[in-house]
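Quick illustration for those who missed Monday's session on complexes.
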Amino acid sequence: MLHGLFSQKNKSNPSKNTLIAAVGNTPLVKLERFSKELGFNLFAKLEIFNPCLSAKDRIAVYIIDQAEKDGKLKEGGTVIDATSGNTGLALAMICRVKGYKCVLTVADKASKEKINSLKSLGAEVVLCPAAALPDDPNSYYQKAITLTKEIPGAFYADQNFNLANSEAHFQTTGPEIWNQTNGEITHVIAAVGTGGTLSGSGRFLKTKNKNIEVIGVDAYGSVLKKYHETGIYDISITHPYKMEGVGKSIIPGNVNFDVIDRFIKVGDLKSALRARKMAQLEGVWAGHSSGAAVEALFKTKDDFKPTDNVVVVLSDHGSKYLSTIYNDNWVEEKLYSDSRV
Ligand SMILES: Cc1ncc(COP(=O)(O)O)c(C=O)c1O
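Prediction with pyridoxal-5'-phosphate bound:
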């Protein structure tokens, strides 16, 4: 009976009763204690509720759908991407559901949990040195491109430049935030990696109210803030850092510099401590980049009014960082010893 009902529904929408239907429509909650400390209303968009515990599930759905529509991905095909973990996990999950193979090039600074999760979902993981510059053949970007050429039927998901990434957030995250705040949102802030989350949701929100301020969070050691302010791509300011998914050493096509009003830079240590504080004070267990986004608000809290309704996107779940920011020894050894910021 149930099975019959399901197959009938599937005729109109083949994704309806698969895991793909569980992507998106994440909760928005007020962070009461942080709001009090900051002096304005802070709401968290909990992307940690997606099936693979990050915002990247949304883009994996859109990127693969688009590739199928364009004829770039066919039955028996292989999806390839360069990913710090979350996009890879999401692509691996969608590939399991849809029956594709998945090969991922990953920077070797990614946590062990992330790498093992990718393997658990059937992806092949190719580790590349995090310190390799983007045009170095050993970098995880170049390796993904080489593998796409070598493997027959391969499709390069290319989360940095494939605009299906920001489109996913324009179509889903942005409208959800607008509706969940009854249109009363004044600011949206998120860590910027590929730029998809903030550019897509920010672009949507500005179609509803052009006065909404869209704030990007960048890392010390990344090129994005300087590029936004000066138009100069300055690779000389890059240096290795620990946060995953915050900042870049390239300028991704998914960063829409016209939509983002300003960037705030934060560092590894304070971002990690802020994520830990959020878990302890609010019970919201999120990752390093989420700590970075909230830390950026603490850094600039005087820029906001008591009536402001600020939405911070919490990109991924804290359970992915048990061996890093939620491990006292790691924080002591890796962050306090190099506590630039
Ligand atoms: C943990 C984490 N936070 C934040 C981001 C940034 O999101 P986006 O790539 O949409 O800018 C990413 C992705 O790069 C990520 O993996």
